[in-house]
Amino acid sequence: MKLEAIEIRTVRMPLVSPFRTSFGVESVRETLLVRVVTATSEGWGECGASEEPLYSSEYTHGATEVLRRHLVPALLRAEIRDAHALAPALARFKGHRLAKSALEAAVLDADLRAQGVSLSHALGATKTRVPCGVSVGITDTIPELIEAVAGYLEAGYARIKLKIEPGWDLDPVRAVREEFGDIELQVDANASYQPADSRHLAKLDDFELSLLEQPFAADDLLGHARLAKAIATPICLDESILSARGAAAAIEMGACSIINIKPGRVGGYLEARRVHDVCSAHDVPVWCGGMLETGVGRAANLAVAAMPGCTMPGDTSASDRYFATDLTDPFVLRDGHLEVPTGAGIGVTPNADVLDEVTVEREWITGAEA
Ligand code: NPQ
Ligand code: MG
User: How far apart are CA 277 and CA 307, in angstroms?
Assistant: First the structure.
């Protein structure tokens, strides 16, 4: 495939309500969109980076910089045959997985659109619709949390994930369990606990949670393996899993029994498929996580969620969980499910007017400059 030009856009989209996690509060989703133009098609990819390096070490300005200075020029020079050649061509640049993933997603979308093949088909997905969960941020009070959860259950979400942190864990989880009974419930700590908190975390065993996500630091696989032996609640890793190889190691060490796949975090949709395959080979359930994606990233994540090993509802929520106006036609929850796009590539395209309205910076990089 001949890549002619690549556009990087920074977008800022207001969230319908502030989203609070152990690492901060977000009221506006700032991120990047990458657009790849070839002789025969174009493709779109979304970057998981946000304004500040809080979830990951990457952030929007840093991702723009590494894309414009290193990744895009090297890609344009590499004259790759297809999207599978992108990761090897950029492997000498260390890290920057969220930025690489956005670029790979755009190339993959352009490539698949030219072939008339959907991303879900390319990934070997087997489902046409997927049950969806929702991630519920930390609130100031328990009544506010109950109200938020009630709204999502009313909307039909198939499972609820509560964000927890030291000081906001047993009481809110107990309150939600008591109020709503036998719902599918799980918690995500975003690495906010220490191994010394293990006895405290073991008290979560009273609440029959589907899983406890990423209690400790990303690089503490040993800590997670020890915790997994000490508590009954299954441990799921998110921030710790950066590749298929790392997933295999974490599973073999007993650091987790479930994995949250975020394509951006592992450097792209093709590596996400490999993480999925490693997990399936070990009978480890996986589910597709989320990073407050617009419709562009959301569409691609639905293809991941439709893969056969994704046996748990993911954070692939409807557009209106985050945005009053999405960049694409909105993804609407029906009966607790979202439909997996069937069109070529990711199957959706940003609405040009909405996109221009939320774009705060844009630049084109062509082969000539590279
Ligand atoms: C998680 N996602 O599973 C992440 C956390 C996350 C849906 O809970 C901007 C603002 C970017 C908040 C990326 C969910 C973010 C963000 C990731 C939260 O850990
Ligand atoms: Mg998480």
Answer: 10
DSSP structure string for 230-258: H-SSPEEESTT--SHHHHHHHHHHTS-SE
Q: How confident is the model at residue 369, as a pLDDT?
A: 55
Q: Report DSSP state, residue 339.
A: E
- State the Cα angle at 244 between 272 and 184, rounded to 5°: 60
Answer yes or no: is pLDDT of 370 > 60.
no
Which of 11, 13, 17, 21 has most ligand 1 atoms within 8 Å of CB, for mutation?
A: 21
Residues in the ligand 1 pocket, defined by CB under 6 Å: 19, 21, 26, 50, 55, 135, 188, 190, 238, 289-292, 315
d(CA 198, CA 212): 12
Which ligand is located closest to the Cα atom of residue 236?
A: 2
pTM of the shown model: 0.97
pLDDT score at 176: 98
pLDDT value of position 207: 98
Chain centroid to CA 261: how far?
7
- Percentage of residues in the chain with pLDDT exceeding 70? 99
CATH superfamily of 3-116+351-366: Enolase-like, N-terminal domain (3.30.390.10)
- For ligand 1, pick from 52, 54, 55, 266 the residue to mutate: most ligand atoms within 8 Å of CB: 55
Told to judge if 262 belongs to the known catalytic residues of this protein, a careful annotator would answer yes
Structurally, at CATH architecture level, domain 121-339 sits in Alpha-Beta Barrel (3.20)
Q: Is 46 helix (H, G, I), strand (E, B) or coil?
A: strand
State the distance from the centre of ligand 2 to the C-alpha of 72, rounded, in angstroms.
29
Let me know the angle formed at the C-alpha of 283 by 279 and 288, rounded to the nearest 5 degrees.
45
How does the average pLDDT of the chain come out, rounded?
Answer: 97
Segment 11-36 mean pLDDT: 97
What are the structural domain ranges in the chain? 3-116+351-366, 121-339
CA distance 161 to 186: 5
